[in-house]
């Protein structure tokens, strides 16, 4: 397999070298499909394929064949497709995708062997002994079918085995077999194809959080027990309204340090429909960031997009009011997100030399002793890469201080000092990294705080969020008084329907929606101006975008 794929890369490299000689460099580069650029970077770029348009639509088939060098079956290899009733295997859909991939020199990632969804009810009702046997037989038959087929190189052996708090999901697998089903599944897959790369796959694990840490610990412990886990998949079903997980690359890197391959397995970036140019631009930035994170981590094998055209995407059916998550629109036109993926794979080359327009003068409101809200007239970006966001600075002579960043034309500044004059300005960034001129300055003065002896402030930062939860880390507690304190009490409010699912570095109690966090035994002593931190994680209703607020410190 490795011989085969490296000769494939060599052929592509040769094509690239010839193209450099035979064609004007810029046009050859710009028009090359995604897979050409990906291969020259040693990565795959893939798409999940659905069997029906693959057999019925020429446009779908052509793009699938020419743009990608890796494919995943969106549904055709799941248990309900391959073994709908016990012992009755049906590989028609799976074979159609594998044959297509073979014809087009693409690798197939097998998805998925053991999952709690799309598994027939006959499996779910089995006794423990019968269920373990059925699982091993299923893996042996499905993996075994493609074991000698060089196109199928890897498998998602288990999928989504954790919940968002980082506990093992109480699926029928876990409830019937206990945790051991995971190791058993990997061993069965290894026995069925000793050469296939075996992966564990999950969602909401892109950033460093309770769930990704649980997978990290499980993979580490399984490998210590010689359970054959070779790879970790990060689904990456992202949404622009929840922010980009800024520690994505760092997270990939910590898994790489365990010695496993990592891969982005199901990338899509949904928006609240309808589309507009600003949302498209933000979405493009997310795609670019994901591709760049994978490019920056040697152990990252590549990126699979969960479909490629908005015409066939699982998003609108699963997340009401959301969609347009992919890189081609419903009519197979390339979107800004396509350009972002293309340009990132092509080596960060950009066709956008134009910075965004200068933001309007910010206007300050809701000024307290430690916070203020700013809004300004939005910038526009005409260079093609789209507006990515704004940086808000405090003017302070030689080195201005970055107070915060926003993807919209407003921000709420926290952690400000009491009775202090601030002069602030905003500048805009586009997806290519071009920066606008600075806006004009706005001046405001914070109110007097309870800054006498014993006063303190608390500022919470949302580090990472997903559809139904978020992590606030750090909450920075600062002694703003003039003498040392030996303890602190922070209160904050959770929006209706939000519940605390974990906390660290504080003793936390909850009453209604009010959370009270007191210092732990080891972090209550703060000298004047000294700070300490704690953190917590919250579950919220699906689709809710609110976060905790109203931090007070005493
Ligand atoms: C989705 C498919 O895209 C849909 O067509 C199907 O109805 C449900 O499953 N995580 C996974 C994928 O691992 O298998 C899911 O795919 C999306 C979430």
UniProtKB/TrEMBL annotation:
<feature type="signal peptide">
    <location>
        <begin position="1"/>
        <end position="30"/>
    </location>
</feature>
<dbReference type="GO" id="GO:0045493">
    <property type="term" value="P:xylan catabolic process"/>
</dbReference>
<dbReference type="InterPro" id="IPR012291">
    <property type="entry name" value="CBM2_carb-bd_dom_sf"/>
</dbReference>
<keyword id="KW-0326">Glycosidase</keyword>
<dbReference type="InterPro" id="IPR008965">
    <property type="entry name" value="CBM2/CBM3_carb-bd_dom_sf"/>
</dbReference>
<dbReference type="InterPro" id="IPR044846">
    <property type="entry name" value="GH10"/>
</dbReference>
<dbReference type="InterPro" id="IPR001000">
    <property type="entry name" value="GH10_dom"/>
</dbReference>
<keyword id="KW-0624">Polysaccharide degradation</keyword>
<dbReference type="InterPro" id="IPR031158">
    <property type="entry name" value="GH10_AS"/>
</dbReference>
<feature type="active site" description="Nucleophile">
    <location>
        <position position="266"/>
    </location>
</feature>
<dbReference type="InterPro" id="IPR013783">
    <property type="entry name" value="Ig-like_fold"/>
</dbReference>
<keyword id="KW-0378">Hydrolase</keyword>
<dbReference type="GO" id="GO:0030247">
    <property type="term" value="F:polysaccharide binding"/>
</dbReference>
<keyword id="KW-0119">Carbohydrate metabolism</keyword>
<dbReference type="InterPro" id="IPR003961">
    <property type="entry name" value="FN3_dom"/>
</dbReference>
<dbReference type="InterPro" id="IPR036116">
    <property type="entry name" value="FN3_sf"/>
</dbReference>
<dbReference type="GO" id="GO:0031176">
    <property type="term" value="F:endo-1,4-beta-xylanase activity"/>
</dbReference>
<protein>
    <recommendedName>
        <fullName>Beta-xylanase</fullName>
        <ecNumber>3.2.1.8</ecNumber>
    </recommendedName>
</protein>
<comment type="similarity">
    <text>Belongs to the glycosyl hydrolase 10 (cellulase F) family.</text>
</comment>
<keyword id="KW-0858">Xylan degradation</keyword>
<dbReference type="Pfam" id="PF00331">
    <property type="entry name" value="Glyco_hydro_10"/>
</dbReference>
<keyword id="KW-0732">Signal</keyword>
<feature type="domain" description="CBM2">
    <location>
        <begin position="449"/>
        <end position="554"/>
    </location>
</feature>
<feature type="domain" description="GH10">
    <location>
        <begin position="38"/>
        <end position="344"/>
    </location>
</feature>
<dbReference type="InterPro" id="IPR017853">
    <property type="entry name" value="GH"/>
</dbReference>
<dbReference type="Pfam" id="PF00041">
    <property type="entry name" value="fn3"/>
</dbReference>
<feature type="region of interest" description="Disordered">
    <location>
        <begin position="344"/>
        <end position="367"/>
    </location>
</feature>
<dbReference type="InterPro" id="IPR001919">
    <property type="entry name" value="CBD2"/>
</dbReference>
<feature type="domain" description="Fibronectin type-III">
    <location>
        <begin position="358"/>
        <end position="449"/>
    </location>
</feature>
<dbReference type="Pfam" id="PF00553">
    <property type="entry name" value="CBM_2"/>
</dbReference>
């Amino acid at each position: 397999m490795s011989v085969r794929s490296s000769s494939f890369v060599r052929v592509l490299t040769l094509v690239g070298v010839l193209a450099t000689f035979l064609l004007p460099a810029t046009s050859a580069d710009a028009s090359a499909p995604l897979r050409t650029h990906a291969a020259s970077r040693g990565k795959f770029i893939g798409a999940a394929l659905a069997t029906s348009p693959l057999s019925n639509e020429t446009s779908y088939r052509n793009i699938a064949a020419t743009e990608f060098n890796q494919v995943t079956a969106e549904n055709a290899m799941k248990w309900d497709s391959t073994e709908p009733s016990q012992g009755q295997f049906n590989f028609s859909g799976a074979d159609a995708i594998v044959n297509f991939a073979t014809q087009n020199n693409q690798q197939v990632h097998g998805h998925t062997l053991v999952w709690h969804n799309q598994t027939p009810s006959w499996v779910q009702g089995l006794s423990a002994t019968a269920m373990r046997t059925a699982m091993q037989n299923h893996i042996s038959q499905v993996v075994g079918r493609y074991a000698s087929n060089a196109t199928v190189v890897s498998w998602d052996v288990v999928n989504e085995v954790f919940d968002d708090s980082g506990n093992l999901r109480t699926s029928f697998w876990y409830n019937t077999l206990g945790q051991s089903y995971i190791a058993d599944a990997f061993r069965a897959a290894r026995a069925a194809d000793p050469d296939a790369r075996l992966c564990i796959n999950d969602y909401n694990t892109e950033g460093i959080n309770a769930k990704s840490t649980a997978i990290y610990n499980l993979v580490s412990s399984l490998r210590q027990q010689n359970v054959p886990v070779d790879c970790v998949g990060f689904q990456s079903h992202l949404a622009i309204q929840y922010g980009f997980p800024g520690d994505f690359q760092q997270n990939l890197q910590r898994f790489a340090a365990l010695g496993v391959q990592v891969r982005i397995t199901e990338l899509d970036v949904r928006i609240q429909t309808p589309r507009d140019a600003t949302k498209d631009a933000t979405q493009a930035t997310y795609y670019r960031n994901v591709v760049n994170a994978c490019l920056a981590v040697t152990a990252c094998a590549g990126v699979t997009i969960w479909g490629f055209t908005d015409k066939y995407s699982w998003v609108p059916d699963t997340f009401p009011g959301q969609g347009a998550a992919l890189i081609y629109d419903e009519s197979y036109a390339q979107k800004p997100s396509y350009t972002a993926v293309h340009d990132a794979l092509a080596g960060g080359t950009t066709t956008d030399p134009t910075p965004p327009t200068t933001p309007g003068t910010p206007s300050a409101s809701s000024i307290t002793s430690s916070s203020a809200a700013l809004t300004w007239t939005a910038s526009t970006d005409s260079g093609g890469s789209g507006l990515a966001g704004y940086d808000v600075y405090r003017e302070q002579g030689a080195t201005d201080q970055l107070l915060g960043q926003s993807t919209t034309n407003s921000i709420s500044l926290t952690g400000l000092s009491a009775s202090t004059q601030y002069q602030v300005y905003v500048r805009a960034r586009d997806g290519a990294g071009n920066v606008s001129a600075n806006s004009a300055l706005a001046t405001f003065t914070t109110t007097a705080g309870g800054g006498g002896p014993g006063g303190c402030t608390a500022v919470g930062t949302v580090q990472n969020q997903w559809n139904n939860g978020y992590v606030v880390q750090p909450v920075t507690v600062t002694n703003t008084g003039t003498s040392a304190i030996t303890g602190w009490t922070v209160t904050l409010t959770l929006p209706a329907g939000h519940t605390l699912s974990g906390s660290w570095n504080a003793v936390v109690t909850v009453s209604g929606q009010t959370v009270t966090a007191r210092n732990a035994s080891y972090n209550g002593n703060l000298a004047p101006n000294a700070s300490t931190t704690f953190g917590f994680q919250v579950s919220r209703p699906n689709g809710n975008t609110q976060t905790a607020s109203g931090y007070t410190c005493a």
